[in-house]
Fold this protein.
Amino acid sequence: MNVLDFLKGKKEEETVPTVFRISGWRAYAIQALMIVLAFVYLIPFYWMILKSFRNTIFAGFPVDLNPFSRTSLSYFISNFNTVWNFSFSAFPLWYFNSVFIAVCVVAGSVVVGAMAGYAFARLRFRGREALFIVVLATLMIPFPVITIAEYVFMVDIHWVNTYQSLILPQMASAVNVFLFRQFFLTIPSEVEEAAKIDGLRPMSIFLRISAPLAKPAFAASAILTFIGSWNNFIWPLFDVQTINMYTLPLALNFFKGANGTQIYWNQMMMATLISLIPTFVIYIIFERYFVTGLSAVSGIKG
Amino acid sequence: MNGRNGAVVKTSRMESTAAYLMIAPLFVLLILFTFFPVFYSFYISLFHYDPFDHIVYFVGLSNYHIVITNGLFLYSLLNVGYYTLIVVTAQTFLAMLLAILFNTKLPVSRPARAIVYLPAISSPVALSIIFIWVFSPQGLINSLLAFLHMPHGINFLYSVKYAFYAIMALNIFSTAPYFMLIYLAALQSIPLPVLEAASIDGVRSFWHKFRYIYFPMLRFSTILVVILGIIGSMQLFDQVYVMTQGGPGNATLVPLMYVYDYAFLSTGTLGLAAAASFILFAIILVITVLQRNFFRELTWS
Amino acid sequence: MSVDVRGLVVDYGSTRALDEVSFSVADGEFVVILGPSGCGKTTALKCIAGLIEPTKGEIYIDGRLVNGIYPSERNIAMVFQNYALYPHMTVYDNIALNMKMRNIPRQEIERRVREVASLLKINELLQKKPRQLSGGQAQRVGLARALVRNPSVFLMDEPLSNLDAKLRLEMRDEIKRFHALTKKCIIYVTHDQIEAMTLGDRIIVMNKGRIIQIDRPKDLFDNPRHMFVASFLGNPPMNLVPARSEGRAIIIEGDKRPLISVPDGTHLPEKIFLGFRPTDLRLSSDGPLKGKLEYVELLGAELNVHFLVGETRCTARLIREASNEHLLNLPTDNTVSFSVPDHALFFFNGNGGERLSIPFQILRAE
């Protein structure tokens, strides 16, 4: 299923992508290769999970890959407690920060993107083409390179180290606009026309007819945005000045250096695991959306 | 619809008003947090800016002069250029390979692909930390080397020789799956009749198919992957910060690391950092524009 | 005058979708806009509805200029090809939405919805959601939604195209009854000439953004004013054979013998198309129209005779009789000759396709 079909809400059975059919020895060879690759990609995470079930003693390869060697639930629990209660229970606070910020960014940027995407797709107004090119232009402005200016700006308006300074810049995203515009362009407009004839005004049509039909776009957009916000590092690095405002990436980094040059890997890995859980959970539940939704964005970006 | 004074409001007016209302929030955000910072960035770069001692005075283009003549920034640019070259090439090929491999209707395909995609959604910081272990003297790589009776015990991230390559490896590893998706989408939209016709025309073997059908059809995606790859690589930061901080020495210094150092680690050099970041922005912008024009040329052909 | 369209022009960039389209529809009239895909018929309908703003031209509904006025304020209702029902609302809400928007009291809404539902026999469907409905049911809901608005004009955009053949027949009847019931003006768009012929009081034939001819179905069929109309209406379609004029004679391309003669002074274009309907041909041993037999199809009580005139494939639809029974066994390449009555022969300008009304005489074959 390709991107546009997905955004149109077509079911898996309706679309027929071109997939290679292989049989015979080739099939086994390729599957073996895929298994090896999956294995290679899994090892770092696998080791991370195992390490959080262990203490600090290190034994080496390949013994460490054995899930039963020196692992125990009690180690897991003690590691978790150490990490979670670290620095006067700062971890729950950091977790909260990341969640709160991500949720706000998603809510704001998805709504803003949906409205703007709809307007660009369906409404006629003066300057529509020109303004859209302007939106396009923002994609050429990579965030990291304007981080300095963004930071100084926040200092100037006394918003450094605040939630709003962490949330608002991340909401200024053209990506969601593109996603929604593309989506609204490809759904048939008859239902909206019927609504016009029945007397609904443009805004009502958006709220009551088009937006409810855009559930796949909302999902893809929300997931993308959430992950972007959750993993954002460089902006919080500049903006946050006090420990209580750390987001999880900052917290991890801080945790790494907290014991001087000594890294207690078991606790480190527990911390990393805790921070990866939300994205993993979302990934497992919404795996379909990832493959199609993410390629939608990059396809549109080009 | 009658307006308040009884006059009839036209459809076009209604649509326009609604439209402007709906795009207003977006533009407010974009102007405040995207466009404005660009100009502000340039503005700051013209000053000696010290927010802590509140010493701010105009220095014109001297910041730029310092940045350019100070070999460090140029060195970081060279570093990131070298990095981009290697990483983009490798990850593009890897992505293409992965896509072709995983675009098969075999039972293992879907779960394996799901696993391979994990690094793409993981936080770069988390990945960096895990890979600090991978590259550490007792880590995965060294254990593997020991297991294979090869020289081991190398502390990759602390070695001037190997540190940068370690970071390259991490990024090739974790970014290729992301681009694999783009190739997958492209492969899946090659119309089946084209492939069937080719089979009938005698293009049987996989290598021939690859050369005459897949490769040309993937050209479009490859350009996209390369452009995105270059833009992303030039902005390398998270992994460097977490793993090496630019070291050892300046072996892994990249422009954004330079910007960060000068923004925070010295006083009064914020202007320098702004200048450096603006130069980087300009470079990326030029590359993007050039690539887009190149891209447009190709789409017309 | 219910609807009056004057000089409608719609441009999309450099493409002209509607080119100076003008027509009027009387109160209570059932008008069909007929034409192939892309001819602009839906565009014209949408302009009347207010969903598209024309580049130029005026639209009057009930004598009021409605250019720029919002669709819901034009006193129209529309039925769509793919029903366009609100998917997340029940059938009841679908029908009631318009009245809710106009703040009509709940009791009144209830009364009118039920009234309309009984008229269209969809009472049991009121609590269902659109995705639970069949094609025919969905379209009836669409009709109900339009009916309940009590508009001056009903606009219908190919409402039967999404239904299967059998259902289409039933629904065609429904729409006829609908018209008789409401006695309101209906503007109906379709590409199906049978629908047009059976439903319309008048038919507006369009092609490439222009109106070709407006007439009653019978007149359109008997008196096409353009080659396009002649070939579009009628099944099987009219045979069109290219011919040339030489002085006072009209000769079929590829032939040497003149078929038609015209009186002195008649102006003839160089290229002419001869038109005659398959059903108007009669087998005739000395018939002037001669051709080479290709094959014969047996259609039960009728015969479809395929023959070549010059290089043009032609068809004759004959009722089986003793006199033409032998055709079934005639080997290919034999010559067959037909006669055609004078009133069934049409002449069209080879350049432009306009109908030529010229006095003529069919020459007997030697």
About this structure: The radius of gyration of chain C is 25 Å. DSSP finds eight helices and 22 strands in chain C. Residues 91 and 252 of chain C are 60 Å apart (CA to CA). Chain C touches chain B at residues 50, 53, 68-73 (CB under 8 Å).
